[in-house]
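To close the chapter, one final illustration. This time we ask the reader to focus less on the individual chains and more on the assembly as a whole: which components sit near each other, and how the overall shape emerges from the parts.
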Amino acid sequence: MTDTAQRPTLEAVAARAGVSRATVSRVVNGGDGVREPLVERVRKAVEELGYVPNQAARSLVTRRHDAIAVVVAEPETRVFADPFFALQLRGISKELTAHDNQLVLLLTEGRDDHARVGRYLAGGHVDGALVFSLHLDDPLPGLIQHAGVPTVFGGRPDWSGDRRGVVYVDSDNRGGARDAVRHLVGLGRSRIAHITGALDQTSAVDRLDGYRDVMVDADPRLIVEGDFTPAGGERAMRELLVRCPDLDAVFAANDLTAAGALRVLRESGRRVPEDVAVVGFDDMLPVAEQTEPSLTTVRQDIEEMGRLMARLLLRGLDRHAVEQGVGAAPSSVVLPTTLVRRASA
Amino acid sequence: MTDTAQRPTLEAVAARAGVSRATVSRVVNGGDGVREPLVERVRKAVEELGYVPNQAARSLVTRRHDAIAVVVAEPETRVFADPFFALQLRGISKELTAHDNQLVLLLTEGRDDHARVGRYLAGGHVDGALVFSLHLDDPLPGLIQHAGVPTVFGGRPDWSGDRRGVVYVDSDNRGGARDAVRHLVGLGRSRIAHITGALDQTSAVDRLDGYRDVMVDADPRLIVEGDFTPAGGERAMRELLVRCPDLDAVFAANDLTAAGALRVLRESGRRVPEDVAVVGFDDMLPVAEQTEPSLTTVRQDIEEMGRLMARLLLRGLDRHAVEQGVGAAPSSVVLPTTLVRRASA
DNA sequence: CTGAAAGCGCTAACAG
DNA sequence: CTGTTAGCGCTTTCAG
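The assembled structure is written out below.
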């Protein structure tokens, strides 16, 4: 743990280059409108002194921070169970980095933290926020709207409040689910069960809706609630085998759930896909490729979702500064999914 | 994307409360040495105006940011393959939050990014850094030393430079490996193979050393290099079965590797644990509990590692400010591991 | 115990 | 094109 040295200031650079602070500032910020020889001199002085601008001083006057908050609600739930979050974060990071923005990560644990996050956002520490509000009835979106920070949501937020200007990036969960179930139908299956995700998340609800779109008058007993975890998948699968021993296919709300279901099917002596075909959702590689048999699933480009969220936010920020409301506000994006065929269906 | 409203300043609060800016500042920062009735008045004004201090202005004078950078090198490698990183991050976040510090996440992709990170750290945007330098011969530690930012490393860094004051938090990889192998020996196994991790990471090297501590004159053919991934585990296991068909146990460098090995063992018709006992490392629940059979493994408390890193860093920062070198500098910590017995050994 | 005053380092008019 | 001049909002001596 070394000591932080005293950093040189604009003043010092100006003195060394024999110009005014203003000129140094201009050069440091792109050098427009400064004659070449001066630019050279200043650059040299900056180099020699190892000058780095003080971001606090700069923010104080520009009111920009070049920093974006990423808010993740309640990591305990799903976020840390699979690499989903990590991938999305990576996409976000790449995009932010490309635009010289910093990523401030705000993880919340339960209700108390909401207030803290709200305060932080309202405090004007960041230029915008990327929010993963996974749960229905989450107070976060409201808080954020109140804080007045430009925001893009990850996943369609379920929000009863004012929807104007709510921007989100989501996968086509419903369409993807339809594809999955249609694929099973195409395989000649008719008793197709569905293990849902945690139904307090819009993604789970949307996937269930997609299932219903195809299985218009499905036997209600074929639908069992899961929670996006392998354990939930096991539990649900056991229940299904009791309720509907004649089922010949399962559409699981995600790959982890499918993995749990596969295990139970194997234990019960059902062959996959011969007796029961199984389709998952996510195409989480470490999971989908490792199950036995490997998993047919619906792929979504998670990293791209992250990148897109960041892009949308930054674009909005720009317009904000430049055109003041001219041009359409950025609008939500729903990314397509693709079915990946492997061995399980 | 809503507009950012004009925030009230200290001045405004002072006016409303009928006191000076200085007094408001004192109250906001703890209220020491201000008479109770005034404190009340100020608090009320703050409340009514929804005042939140401007961090940039504050940092400008205090030179504190109450922000810590978390630097993760090359996410592609291991970090995003398993929930390891996410858990550690969570521990870090909890600790930082408890001390009112923000978490600035810096993900790097390749060499070019190192320079960017170095610049950022040197720029004095944060009070300290938590660095995951997973690879041998990583230039990052050097850059950081150069930047002069107080730093705690996650995992023992392999660093040829000046070791003075290098602080890290690590698991007892070597001891844990010894426990694992001893357990296998205790089970009466004698032909115990080891699938290593990626040997450009100290954790992999340390686990290999632990294996060798117990298997002092092990047949060198029993050691095969893996890379911490299931695919690597499969490849290594296949090779082992060819090289040493008589092996009766495998110690895998992590759970993912073990999962791959288990799959190959099953395919090859070996029963686990009857024919071949298998032990992993990490106790990554989603993996270790889901394998068939469930995995005996070495547990490390990953979240605690993260928490500890943050605690160490913050403590160092404090001392820095207060005592200026008095008292011992924080030193590295190696956390113990425990063997978790399940079905595979 | 409280207020007045002096910057922290930088940018952004505004002159020249 | 370049320099001068005000602050941005806050903390912190220093007087009173």
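Chain A touches chain B through 68 residues (CB under 8 Å). The CA atoms of residues 19 and 42 of chain A lie 8 Å apart. With these observations in hand, you are ready for the problems at the end of the chapter.
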